[in-house]
Amino acid sequence: MADGHDILNSAKVSDEEALKRADEFRAAISTRRTVRDYDPAPVPQEVIEACITAAGTAPSGANQQPWHFVAVRDPETKQKIRAAAEAEERRFYEGGAGQDWLDALAPIGTDADKPHLEDAAWLIVVFAQRWGTKEDGSKQKHYYVPESVGIATGMLLTALHMSGLVTLTHTPNPMGFLRDLLGRPDNEKATMIIAAGHPAQDATVPKMAKIKKPLADILTIR
User: Fold this and answer.
1) How far is CA 204 from CA 112, 123, 207, 211, in A?
2) Which of the 8 DSSP states describes residue 21?
3) Residue 95 — left, alpha, or beta (φ > 0 → left; ψ -120 to 50 → alpha)?
4) Hey, where are the domains in the chain?
5) Is the pLDDT of residue 49 over 90?
6) Helices of type H across the chain
7) Separation of alpha carbons 8 and 12, rounded Å
8) What pLDDT is stored for residue 96 in this prediction?
9) For residue 2, is pLDDT > 60?
10) Quick one: three-class SS letters along 95-140?
11) What is the rounded distance in angstroms from the CA atom of residue 167 to the CA atom of residue 196?
């Protein structure tokens, strides 16, 4: 169109079809679980590319798309990421975290050992771009970066699940080592490592992690 907009080509569905689709998606996504035990079997690069392409369609402030994903399958790089992450995790579990935080994690059974960072077929490191660069080389401020990257990350996790893969989100603190290790520019800040792949045959899930708040606790209708 002359004004720089396109007509939305989206067919309206009936209320019955909308509910059917919503229920089907709810049933599919309700089986998503965070998994810590991985089978090292490979996952085709094309699957990861398709999932990240889907994540890249997320809404963002001023459509600036302030994200970058680094997908790692190289064993040596994964080993380096694990070593650096575990160093931060040891500091966390040895006093860096408050006791309340450690108490909250206790039922899940996590500790500083992170074998999934090597075992999973892929590690996807999510970077938030705090600013961009204009054509003249000057900085371009990005808006709503945490919100935009958070939405894209959620869509990526959903896409990976719908592809039949399992995931684990990992946020060592601090994460500056990831930018250096992966050669990313100064305007990017790592926000998360996502382990993605096939679950180990004997993979388990903490029982408490399967307990989700009921609809009445998370929804208010006015």
Assistant:
1) 18, 20, 9, 15
2) H
3) left
4) 34-218
5) yes
6) 15-29, 45-55, 75-91, 99-105, 116-119, 145-162, 176-182, 215-218
7) 11
8) 62
9) no
10) HHCCHHHHHHHHHHCCCCCCCHHHHCCEEEEEEEECEEECCCCCEE
11) 5
Out of 113-127, 132-146, 201-215, give the one with best mean pLDDT: 113-127
Q: What is the DSSP letter of 202?
A: T
- Residue 93 near residue 84, CB atoms below 8 Å: no
Q: Which residue has the higher pLDDT, 100 or 167?
A: 167
For residue 113, what are its two tokens?
């050992």
The two tokens of residue 85 are 């992450």
Q: Which CATH class is domain 34-218?
A: alpha beta
Task: Please provide the average confidence, as pLDDT, over all residues in the chain.
Answer: 92
List Cβ neighbours of 186 (8 Å cut-off, separation of 6 or more): 179
With beta carbons less than 8 A apart as the criterion, state whether 142 and 132 touch. Answer: yes
Length of the chain: 222
Q: Which helix (H) or strand (E) holds 67?
A: strand 67-72
Helix (H, G, I), strand (E, B) or coil at 51: helix
Return the structure tokens found at 157. 């996790």
* Per-position DSSP letters for 187-201, written without gaps between them: TEEEEEEEEEEEEPT
- Give me 3's structure tokens: 């004004």
Token pair for 185 = 């520019």
Q: What is the pLDDT of residue 11?
A: 81
pLDDT score of 142: 95
Residue-wise pLDDT tens digits, 140-182: 999 999 999 999 999 999 999 999 999 999 998 889 999 999 9
